[in-house]
Amino acid sequence: MPLLNEEIAEQVKQELADLAGPARLVVFTQEFECEFCAETRQLVEEVAQLSDQLTAEVYNFVTDKEKAEELGIDKIPAIAIIGAEDYGVRFYGIPSGYEFTSLLHAIRAVAAGEPELSEDTLQALAEVTEPVHIQVFVTPTCPYCAGSVV
Question: Does the pLDDT at position 146 exceed 60?
Answer without folding.
Answer: no
